[in-house]
Amino acid sequence: MPTLFRYAGFLLCLMIFLPASAQVPQSFSYQAVCRNTNGTPLLNQPVHFNIELLQGSITGTVVYAETQCDTTSAFGVSMLEIGRGTPTTGTFAGISWANTPTFIRISFDATGGNNFIPLG
Questions:
Q1: Which of 7, 10, 59, 64 has an alpha carbon 20 to 30 Å from 81's alpha carbon atom?
Q2: How many whole angstroms separate alpha carbon 43 and alpha carbon 72?
Q3: Contact 48/113 with Cβ under 8 angstroms?
Q4: Whole-model pTM?
Protein backbone atom coordinates (compact mmCIF):
# COMPACT_ATOMS: atom_id res chain seq x y z
CA MET A 1 0.00 0.00 0.00
CA PRO A 2 2.76 2.60 0.74
CA THR A 3 4.08 2.13 -2.83
CA LEU A 4 0.66 3.00 -4.24
CA PHE A 5 0.65 6.25 -2.22
CA ARG A 6 4.13 7.12 -3.51
CA TYR A 7 3.01 6.70 -7.13
CA ALA A 8 -0.20 8.64 -6.48
CA GLY A 9 1.85 11.49 -4.94
CA PHE A 10 4.21 11.49 -7.92
CA LEU A 11 1.31 11.62 -10.39
CA LEU A 12 -0.32 14.42 -8.42
CA CYS A 13 2.93 16.44 -8.58
CA LEU A 14 3.11 15.92 -12.35
CA MET A 15 -0.48 17.05 -12.78
CA ILE A 16 0.21 20.23 -10.80
CA PHE A 17 3.59 21.25 -12.27
CA LEU A 18 3.41 20.22 -15.94
CA PRO A 19 0.65 22.64 -16.98
CA ALA A 20 2.34 25.51 -15.13
CA SER A 21 5.68 24.98 -16.88
CA ALA A 22 4.14 25.33 -20.34
CA GLN A 23 2.65 28.77 -19.76
CA VAL A 24 4.32 31.91 -21.09
CA PRO A 25 4.31 34.83 -18.61
CA GLN A 26 2.01 37.69 -19.60
CA SER A 27 4.27 40.38 -18.13
CA PHE A 28 7.74 40.94 -16.73
CA SER A 29 9.16 43.34 -14.17
CA TYR A 30 11.23 46.40 -15.00
CA GLN A 31 12.77 48.77 -12.48
CA ALA A 32 14.57 52.06 -13.10
CA VAL A 33 15.87 55.04 -11.17
CA CYS A 34 14.38 58.09 -12.89
CA ARG A 35 16.65 61.13 -13.06
CA ASN A 36 16.46 64.61 -14.52
CA THR A 37 18.97 65.94 -17.09
CA ASN A 38 21.37 66.85 -14.25
CA GLY A 39 21.34 63.27 -12.94
CA THR A 40 19.31 64.07 -9.82
CA PRO A 41 16.74 61.37 -8.93
CA LEU A 42 13.11 62.39 -9.40
CA LEU A 43 11.57 61.80 -5.98
CA ASN A 44 7.85 61.06 -5.50
CA GLN A 45 7.08 62.41 -8.96
CA PRO A 46 4.67 61.23 -11.67
CA VAL A 47 6.46 59.88 -14.75
CA HIS A 48 5.16 58.44 -18.04
CA PHE A 49 6.85 55.61 -19.94
CA ASN A 50 6.73 54.41 -23.53
CA ILE A 51 7.91 50.78 -23.79
CA GLU A 52 8.63 49.08 -27.13
CA LEU A 53 9.61 45.45 -27.74
CA LEU A 54 11.48 44.96 -31.02
CA GLN A 55 12.45 41.74 -32.75
CA GLY A 56 15.55 40.93 -34.74
CA SER A 57 17.66 43.88 -33.57
CA ILE A 58 17.49 47.07 -31.55
CA THR A 59 16.34 48.80 -34.76
CA GLY A 60 14.04 45.90 -35.70
CA THR A 61 10.28 45.72 -36.02
CA VAL A 62 8.21 46.90 -33.05
CA VAL A 63 6.03 43.89 -32.22
CA TYR A 64 4.55 45.35 -29.06
CA ALA A 65 4.40 48.80 -27.49
CA GLU A 66 2.64 50.20 -24.45
CA THR A 67 2.55 53.25 -22.23
CA GLN A 68 2.52 53.31 -18.45
CA CYS A 69 2.21 56.01 -15.81
CA ASP A 70 3.86 55.66 -12.43
CA THR A 71 4.93 57.74 -9.46
CA THR A 72 8.55 57.35 -8.41
CA SER A 73 9.42 56.31 -4.86
CA ALA A 74 11.18 58.42 -2.25
CA PHE A 75 14.43 57.21 -3.89
CA GLY A 76 13.37 57.98 -7.48
CA VAL A 77 12.65 54.34 -8.31
CA SER A 78 9.87 53.35 -10.68
CA MET A 79 8.72 49.72 -10.90
CA LEU A 80 6.70 48.56 -13.90
CA GLU A 81 5.10 45.33 -15.04
CA ILE A 82 5.68 45.35 -18.79
CA GLY A 83 2.72 43.71 -20.44
CA ARG A 84 0.22 45.32 -18.05
CA GLY A 85 0.27 48.86 -19.48
CA THR A 86 -1.92 50.46 -22.15
CA PRO A 87 -1.05 48.77 -25.48
CA THR A 88 -0.36 51.04 -28.46
CA THR A 89 0.98 48.38 -30.88
CA GLY A 90 0.26 44.64 -30.96
CA THR A 91 -0.56 42.42 -28.00
CA PHE A 92 1.77 41.04 -25.36
CA ALA A 93 0.29 37.56 -25.83
CA GLY A 94 1.01 37.81 -29.57
CA ILE A 95 4.80 38.14 -29.14
CA SER A 96 6.74 35.19 -30.57
CA TRP A 97 9.55 34.70 -28.05
CA ALA A 98 11.03 31.60 -29.72
CA ASN A 99 14.01 31.71 -32.13
CA THR A 100 14.10 35.51 -32.49
CA PRO A 101 16.02 37.91 -30.24
CA THR A 102 13.75 40.47 -28.61
CA PHE A 103 14.99 43.90 -27.54
CA ILE A 104 13.45 46.54 -25.31
CA ARG A 105 13.48 50.28 -25.94
CA ILE A 106 12.20 52.51 -23.14
CA SER A 107 11.50 56.24 -23.23
CA PHE A 108 10.02 58.40 -20.50
CA ASP A 109 8.69 61.84 -19.75
CA ALA A 110 9.89 63.16 -16.40
CA THR A 111 6.88 65.47 -16.16
CA GLY A 112 4.27 62.72 -16.63
CA GLY A 113 3.36 63.97 -20.13
CA ASN A 114 3.95 62.58 -23.62
CA ASN A 115 7.30 64.21 -24.50
CA PHE A 116 9.25 60.95 -24.35
CA ILE A 117 13.06 60.92 -24.10
CA PRO A 118 14.84 57.60 -24.80
CA LEU A 119 16.68 56.01 -21.88
CA GLY A 120 20.22 55.03 -22.84
A1: 59
A2: 6
A3: yes
A4: 0.77
Least confident of 15-19, 63-67, 109-113: 15-19
Chain centre distance of CA 80? 7
Residue 119 is predicted with a pLDDT of: 83
- The rounded radius of gyration (Å) of the Cα atoms in the chain is 20
90 Cβ contact partners less than 8 Å away, ≥ 6 residues apart: 62, 63, 64, 65
Task: Compute the C-alpha angle 113/116/120, nearest 5°.
Answer: 140
Q: Are 93 and 6 in contact (CB under 8 A)?
A: no
| Mean of all residue pLDDT scores within the chain | 84
